[in-house]
Amino acid sequence: MIATLDGQKLTYGELESYLEALGPQMKAAALSSRHDLIRQYALQKKIVELAEKDKLDQMSPYKEALELSRRVVLIEGEINYKALHFLVTPEDQKKYYDTHKARYTEVKLQALYLGFTSDEVAKENPKKYRNEAQAKALAANIRSEVKTQADFVKAVARYSEDETSKENKGEFGVVHASDTVPSEDVKKIIFAMKAGDISDPIKQQNGFYLFRADTVGLRPYAEVKDEIYTELKNQLSREWMDGLQKNLNIKEENAQFFNAPASSKK
After folding, report:
1. What angle do helix axes 132-145 and 149-159 make, rounded to 10 degrees?
2. Is CB count within 10 Å lower at the N or C end of the chain?
3. In CATH, what class is 103-218?
4. What is the enclosing helix (H) or strand (E) of 223?
């Protein structure tokens, strides 16, 4: 027993059930001040008792709101329960890896960046700025002259305007096929490259990139197996949900209802 509330015992089990429903973050915050926690719990319990005494749970709109809350909790609970019990074996994970290796390709890149501005600004100060056509032409010229990694590093030092990569001899980092950045169009170009290849100028919002593929490899299975586990779990959840939707037995009976125009607020 932790305390008594109006003479009734408050047990560890009762309080723990309340805290678990709050979720990890709110539970931790509540336990940081335990005296306040018990007072808040007691106050909530008292108000609920008064609401039930006044039969609010049987009145609109509270009755409907309670039913909606119950629905939401049960829907989320069932989805999580099913996901928890979907079976994904180590064999499933390894098979997925072996049949989706392109998904786990990674490319270590070097980059050279040339910015551009509007035609008007470039015309006013041509020594400081270049327009899009000039930036593209310069990038293409650099691309034609660069043959080796050493050439690329020298070009980065001379031309690149991406200070972060420039300070690291053009090192841009590793791009994975599953990354959300850069865009799919850019990734398509990157993952078509072989080690040592240099891309054509790639236009972005305010400049052009030249990418050099330093190395092209495959992420080890041990590194991605947890990602695969989550992906397979999500896949099973989607299949389960799709199956439920396909088997919904709905027959539309009231054409007037379904054909009515959407209401609009005036």
Report:
1. 150
2. C
3. alpha beta
4. helix 221-246
CA distance 193 to 196: 8
Helices (H) and strands (E) in the chain, counts: 12, 6
Segment 96-144, tens digit of pLDDT: 999 999 899 999 999 999 999 888 888 888 878 889 899 999 999 999 9
pTM: 0.67
Answer for the pair 207, 113: CB distance below 8 angstroms, yes or no.
yes
**CA 215 to CA 42: how far, in whole Å?**
63
Q: What would the 3-class secondary structure string for 115-158 be? A: ECCCHHHHHHCCCCCCCHHHHHHHHHHHHHHCCCHHHHHHHHHH
Q: Tokens in use for 182? A: 């850069």
Angle at 24 between CA 81 and CA 44, to 5 degrees: 100
Q: Rounded to the nearest 5 degrees, what angle is found at the Cα of 225, between the Cα atoms of 222 and 231?
A: 165
Cis amide prior to 61 (ω within 30 degrees): yes
Q: Whole-angstrom Cα distance, residue 249 to residue 258?
A: 17
Domain spans of the chain, in order of start: 1-54, 103-218
